[in-house]
Amino acid sequence: PEAAPVTRQAWKVGDVCIARWAEDRVWYNGEILEMGEVGCLVRFSDYGNEDTVRDDDMVREVGDIPSDNDIDECVGTEATQPEDNPVPASLQCSLCSNLCRRAMRLSCGPAIACWGCAVKEINTTRTCWQCGEKEISTETHLLQDAVLRAFVEQFVSTGKLDPVHLQAIKNGTLEPTSPEKTPDDVVPPSNPILRSCPPSIKTEGKVSPSKNLQVGDVCIARW
């Protein structure tokens, strides 16, 4: 089933919408920046990127999205945490101070951040808010941590973390014994830096290129 699009005449610059990105067919929170002939230029609010979206890929309410479509977890959610259920400092985003959603670690140190918060900050400033390094990208400055995400899921499910896990997060000593493979987080590309390379996450343990390869060689690479 198709979404129930709002007519072109109903949209205007500045309107808040939920827009489906053509690359991954996922619906994201958005804001209309410009009206075009074949669609609207939309800023994906939770990620800071922009793209042209067709009219039939834009709706106003979550209920207008077909039930079998993929919806970003930030759509229809609030970032605040209940006062009677405080988030442990070790699981708080270094940007929004709330529970890390799709938690990531920074490559420059132990700080963590929500995927959405980090992407928006990096795409906007290109500067790390922790170490001050400039001209950074999500590919070079964010690390996916399966153990950290598991702790976040545990806290969401139970409302607490056991002391061993809390200490492990603080010390950074606990490593996953058999981490599950998770899909790469994808960001709607909005600028030459993001368009020039796959939006994957930097991880440890990469295999070094073959010594037989040289700069300029054509190869087949697995993303």
Outline the structure in words:
Helix content is 18%, strand content 17%. Strands 1, 2, 3, 4, 5 and 6 form a six-stranded mixed beta sheet that branches. Strands 8-7-9 form a three-stranded antiparallel beta sheet. The chain is globular and about 55 Å long. It has five helices and nine strands. The chain is of the alpha+beta class. Strand 3 (40-44) and strand 4 form a beta hairpin. Residues 79-85 and 173-208 have low confidence and may be disordered.
How would you summarize this macromolecular structure in one to three sentences?
This protein is α+β, with helices and mostly antiparallel strands and 223 residues long. The chain has helices spanning 115-125, 138-141, 146-158, 163-171, 192-195, and strands at 16-20, 26-35, 40-44, 49-53, 58-59, 70-71, 104-106, 112-113, 142-144.
Main beta sheet, described? 6 strands, mixed
Class by SSE composition: alpha+beta
Order of helices and strands: EEEEEEEEHHEHHH
Low-confidence stretches: 79-85, 173-208
**Strand content bin:** 15-25%
Number of beta-strand segments? 9
Q: In percent, how helical is the residue content?
A: 10-25%
Radius of gyration: 20 Å
Count of DSSP H/I helices: 5
- Name the average pLDDT: 75
Shape: globular
Measured distance between first and last alpha carbons = 32 Å
